C-alpha cells in the first residue's frame, strides 16, 4: 500500500473549514484534475458521489467514513473508472480536520495499491510526485474559499450561502 499525505493549517473557525472541505462544488472547482463532483445518492456515510476528471473520465466513490466536523473517507470504485482500473487495485481518499490552539489542521491523504508487480513501484513514485502539487492546489483553493466565506460572515447583512459563480474558488480556478 502506498500513502500520500499532506497537511495545511488554516486560521479560521472549524465550522467554516469543514463547510469548505465538504462542498463538492468547491472541491471540483479547486482540484486541477476534476471538472465535476456530484452526490448521486445519500449523504454522510454511505453517500455515493460521481467525479469526472478534466479528460472526461468518470468514476464513482463510496463514502465509508463520515464524522461531521471531523473527517470523511471515500473508496473509488476502480471498476467504474477507466483511469483507476488501468493502474490501481484500490484507491481511497481521506480528509480530516483537527482543531488546535493555533488553528485548524486539515489532513488530506490518498492510499492506493498499484497493479503490475515491480513496475507498480515506479507507478507509485510517479503518483507520489504528481499528487503533492495537486493537493497543494486544492489547499490553496480551499484557503481562498475560506477567506471569501470569512469576509461574508463579517458582513451580517449578507448570507453565508454562496452560489457557485460567487465563490472565490470559482473566480480563481474557472
Query: Termini separation (Å)?
Result: 34 Å
Per DSSP E runs of 2 or more residues, the count of β-strands stands at: 7
**Broad CATH class:** Alpha Beta
The CATH homologous superfamily is named START domain
How much of the sequence is in beta strands?
35-45%
- Compute the CA-based radius of gyration: 16 Å
Question: What is the ordering of alpha helices and beta strands?
Answer: EHHEEEEHEEHH
Fraction of helical residues: 25-40%
What about the largest sheet? Answer: 7 strands, antiparallel
Question: Order of strands side by side in the largest beta sheet?
Answer: 1-7-6-5-4-3-2
List the total number of helices.
5
Judged by helices, strands and strand pairing, the structural class is alpha+beta
Amino acid at each position: 500500500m502506498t500513502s500520500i499525505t499532506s497537511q495545511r493549517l488554516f486560521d479560521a473557525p472549524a465550522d467554516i473549514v469543514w463547510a469548505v472541505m465538504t462542498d463538492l462544488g468547491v472541491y471540483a472547482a479547486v482540484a486541477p484534475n476534476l471538472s465535476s463532483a456530484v452526490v448521486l445518492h445519500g449523504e454522510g456515510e454511505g453517500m455515493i458521489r460521481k467525479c469526472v476528471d478534466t479528460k472526461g473520465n468518470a468514476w464513482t466513490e463510496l463514502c465509508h467514513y463520515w464524522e461531521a466536523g471531523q473527517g470523511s473517507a471515500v473508496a473509488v470504485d476502480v471498476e467504474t473508472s477507466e483511469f483507476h482500473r488501468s493502474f490501481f487495485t484500490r484507491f481511497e481518499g481521506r480528509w480530516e480536520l483537527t482543531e488546535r490552539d493555533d488553528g485548524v489542521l486539515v489532513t488530506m491523504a490518498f492510499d492506493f495499491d498499484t497493479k503490475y508487480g515491480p513496475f507498480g513501484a515506479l507507478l507509485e513514485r510517479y503518483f507520489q510526485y504528481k499528487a503533492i502539487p495537486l493537493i497543494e492546489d486544492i489547499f490553496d483553493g480551499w484557503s481562498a474559499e475560506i477567506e471569501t466565506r470569512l469576509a461574508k460572515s463579517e458582513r451580517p447583512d449578507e448570507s453565508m450561502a454562496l452560489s457557485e459563480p460567487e465563490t472565490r474558488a470559482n473566480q480563481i480556478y474557472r
